[in-house]
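Re: Re: token formats

Sure, here are both.
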Amino acid sequence: MINTRLIISGPRGAEEVLLESKSVTLGRGGNCDVILDDPNVSRVHARISQDPFGRWIVEDLESQNGVLVSGQRIKAQALLPEHTIDIRPFTLQISQGTENQTAPGVSLSRIPVIDKALEENILSYSAEKATILSPDLMQMLNELTGHLLKLSSPSELYSQACLILAKILDTFVAVVRLPCHPEPLPQSPEILACRFGTDSTDAKNLQSFYLHFSKRVLDAVRSAEAPVMASSKVSPDEKMVLTVVDEHKPHVVFAARVNDLGEMVDSLYIDILEDKSPKEMFDFVEAASRQINFVQKNLFLTELKKQEKALREANIQLREKDRIKDEYVSRVTHDIKGHLAAIQSCLYIGADESAGPLAEKQSNFLGRALNRTTQLSVFVKELLELTQMRLSGRLQMESFSLPDSISKALAAITTKANDKSIAVSSNIEPSVGQIVGNEFSINEMLTNLLFNAIKYTPENKTVHLEAQSGDDCVQIDICDTGIGIPEDELGEIFEEFFRASNAKKSEKDGTGLGLSIVKQIIERHRGTITAQSQQGQGTTFSVILPTNNPPSG
């Protein structure tokens, strides 16, 4: 079993986190799996996840200050054992412990690479010279395959393969992860699994021998797709004897790829005494590596199907929970809306002194109450619209004039713009004309975006709308010169109830539902919306709508 820990060093010292999940998020937000509490860290800053091949990947989730791997800023990168991750002011490193067979006083987490140069003769496997396996080797191969086919998880594969091969061959077997050529070999490769034969596990013997991998063999196997073999003479240096306990006898080393990961390769490494190595051993290693690769692909496919099924079932459950929640919110909101309307009616009657004159203090209290109930009514209206939209089926689609709809939206915000002396301009290309959609929803979407632009643009600034047609679509850009949106919050602006931090300071009133409603309307029309912003200089929302949505039948 491989235990993976995330070692975090920061201003308050160091800590270790056991990575039990295959994907964890890091940031200062309370919903992150690993919380890095510092103002320089974005709320959701990065993700560390494991791909089906066992590699750990770090991704920058559009953070403000970025993610560095060994000093280089990255978007996404596979991690090597020597890599460090910098999410300033924190430094992180992945540490893995493998399920290796050890003896007292011997650590197999790091075995050095030794270049024995002329002592080894490297041969590459040739399928043309392949021979039929002996009955004994065929039985061994069947035993290996039978055990591997019983596995249920890819994470068990290498450990079990090494265990079985070491047992049936009675020798040292390992699976190592190597960088592809021409990247330099590390001084000690990443050991994914390793096992010794029954005669090689005596603690005294292991302590007296210099364990190592052959540099020439590892170089050869990562440079060529075919398995490789190295035969060796007896080493004249007693400290440079073989990986296995051999009493200075000649040995043979075999290596073969079992997985190609693009930038890395996983290789099977077998070090066996020459007098224990059968004549067809090269063919056996080639067949065994193919079987390991075959089982691995099947396990990955099975694992992916399980994950796909689990995600499908989780999505069904989430959709059902969302539907129940939306129905409940819709009923409650509808009731609140009715009660608010009754309260507002009473407040209006009292405020216009129809029921009698008011003192200045009474008038002030009634005015404040009316203002608050009006704000609450807007919130309830938007919440009701959002839930009803999510619960309803397809929108009624018909052909209408988009320029006319844009003109109505511009007219709706004229008073607000004039109150702040904001110059509103527009440019609608003549080619923009009829589209198929729900005219009421499109008008509401445009009005909402324009009101937002006016709301968060200071006095005496500008707002501009640009509409142009493309291939079977129309693009509408709404550009303001307002407060902008912080870079690390751009990805959250379409979430329900979310308001940017600077928006809260600029305007206290706001529900955080407007942009969520806008996005729902656009997606119902099979369109997209994106936002570009620079804090303090303004924001541009770009809406792309297809011109030919299927009309309602």
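Second one below.
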Amino acid sequence: MQCRTCGTALPSGSAFCPNCGTATPYNVSRQEGNHGAAISPPGNASGGILPPPPPPEGTPPPYPAPPPSEEKPGDLEHSAALAHERAHGHAHTDTPDAHKEHEENANERLILFSDAIIAFAITLAAISIKIPRDPALLVQQSDFRVAAYIAYIVSFAIVAASWNEHHRLFHYIKRNDMVLVLLNFAYLAAVVLVPIGIFFIEVVDPNNIPILLKAFYLFLGSMLGAYLALLLTWIYASRRHRLLDAEMNPRLITYMTMRLLFYPALMLVLLVTVVFPLVGLVGLLALVAALVYRRWYRRGLDISSGSNDVGRILLFSDAVIGIAITIIAAQIEFPSFAGSTGGEEVQKAIAGDLHLLFPYAIGFVVLGVYWLFHYRMFRYINRHDPWLIVLNFGFLLCIVLMFAPINSYAAYSSQRLGARFYFGIWQTVTALLLVLIWWRAAGKRRLLDHTIADDQIRRFGARLVSNLLIIFALLFVALNPAISPGWYLLLYLAALGLATLVIHLRGRRAQAQQVRVA
């Protein structure tokens, strides 16, 4: 197409002639359709377009030019990551909240992997504790079992303390890299060796001093390795705020360094004490002085970072309770078929040993009830403090060792009063610890979600207290040898269900009265 005024060839889709400014036929028809007449652009007598008047002197341009880009290290990788996220349909916002959420999730998989290994390590030594079904062996091995219980409780406390420091550490560490991951692997490898060292001390003949010292050195060395790995992890992460929040208080960094330095120093002092008792005593006095100084240095520091996050406590508790249920199953002594593969012999062996599954059934139901209470409790708790962590670990210790009273009660309920009393006392202590956890959290609402209504707090507290009272009452019922473990379990579930129903109905009645008053 050519311009009808000057004959210049017109580009496709153009509205005006690029040479003289005359409207093209396409533009004329469009303007006539919209306004009823063609509107030509302003021009001179020759038909040319008048240029726009220059802006007054000093007037800023309507669209300022963008500043020259300064490429920074990592910008290319960041842009590539954004392009990858957009290409795969992932939304990305560069807001401060989104950046903070990304930092909080950076260590999520590392923490979950660590908690899985620590949960296994904290229950590992309990597998070696067996309750024999032969009464003669039960009496003969009583001293060994007491030593095994003491050894396991010591290893549990040590691993729990190291988990608490790991938990505290990763409140402040916001990012990770390969060096930090490797240091965390070193910590996990040492933690798993702690219960193994305890087990060696437990099984070694006390009269064999050289072997006993080797087992003791393995135990202390594994603890020293675990706490040294934690210390090195913190030093690496806090160096020039490499993996920490840039706004973290330098005094808090120093306090955490002193806190983590105490544990390997204690292990070294204990190792030296074995060889040089006097030097070890001086070292212990120096450590006491260091604790006093650390306490003084902590004044005025806010060390509550991360106290609003109970997610890791929940996941770790669930892992430990799950492993405790499998430990009960691991206690089952499967029948021996003495090399026979005949169907009749196998059926007789299985039929004669079906009662071995009964302790597992009792344990699964009892631990399931405790898990449900723990699950419901932490739906109301949204913060934590040191006392809550200590009480929760006490509850987990009772849960892990629950297989021992259950197996004793199932095997010897009709023969031994001690087995029935042992089972009832252990259930009472476990239920009491649940009540203490709730008391710590609900007292003055110090650790509860502020949106929870008062009647919900009272109802759940009533359920926990009723569970404790039912178990305590059944303690005296279980002392009767005529009450089998099966009847005990049915009575417990029936009483707990009735108490829950009564509490629920009373709560509904109270709500109805409040509605009528309103």
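The first helix runs from residue 25 to 35. Confidence is low (pLDDT under 50) at residues 28-41, 45-49, 69-93.
- S.
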